[in-house]
Specification:
Blueprint (H helix, E strand, L loop, with lengths): L7 H35 L1 H32 L10 H33 L1 H27 L35 H13 L5 H19 L1
Helix pairs in contact: 1-2, 1-4, 2-3, 3-4, 5-6
Length: about 220
């Protein structure tokens, strides 16, 4: 069984999608750690407030990601024949900046809450954790532009690059079998005639018909 070789671009894109999934897992881990520490050491009221701030932050990020994708589409001119006006481009940029500011306000609210409840030592730790999250999101934004905003991959559906799986990369089409040539078909008919499976006259009729068709197609 022959398979067509996997394109290097497809493998690179798959690795980038896996890297994007890894970044999301890292971000989720930091968020869960912050929430867990708030519940354990500060009580459930501050913990719920932290969940609210982080949830609101994620909603703003979700919208900002779509706005960023629209901006990338405008810059790469993948919007068909539609003409994007300068006012639309400016509006997209302004909306992206606004969503970024709203997102950072939620982070500042969490940092202030930690400082108010637990002091500067906890505040610095929380600030470092949220700063790492922001760096990871910047990396995700960079990866998005490389993979054209494809979804993240977590290695669950893909299984393996070179074994069966639902992803396109592991479902390369098989090489179709070669079609027998006219000479090979005639040779097989001649062999059948010699073995008595068909009559010699039937072989000669088939041979003449194929040869005539070949000449007509050539002309």
């Amino acid at each position: 069984m022959h398979k067509t070789p996997i394109e290097p671009d497809i493998i690179t894109q798959k690795l980038q999608r896996l890297w994007k999934g890894t970044l999301f897992i890292g971000i989720s881990g930091i968020y869960i750690l912050i929430i867990a520490l708030m519940f354990i050491y500060q009580g459930w009221h501050p913990g719920l407030l932290t969940v609210f701030f982080l949830g609101l932050c994620q909603f703003f990020r979700y919208i900002a990601n779509d706005v960023d994708r629209i901006g990338w589409t405008i810059k790469t001119q993948k919007n068909g024949n539609q003409k994007i006006t300068e006012s639309t481009k400016a509006y997209q940029v302004q909306m992206l900046y606004l969503l970024v500011i709203l997102t950072q306000l939620q982070n500042l609210a969490i940092i202030y809450q930690v400082y108010f409840l637990a002091g500067s030592k906890w505040m610095i730790s929380t600030f470092v954790g949220l700063s790492i999250v922001e760096l990871l999101y910047m990396q995700i934004r960079s990866v998005n532009k490389k993979i054209e905003f494809e979804q993240a991959s977590y290695g669950i559906k893909d299984r393996d690059l070179f074994f069966e799986g639902p992803e396109l990369i592991s479902k390369q089409p098989e090489t179709p079998p070669e079609t027998p040539t006219l000479e090979e078909k005639l040779a097989e008919l001649k062999k059948m005639s010699e073995q008595g499976q068909i009559s010699k006259k039937a072989y000669e009729n088939a041979r003449d018909k194929y040869l005539i068709r070949k000449v007509l197609k050539k002309n």
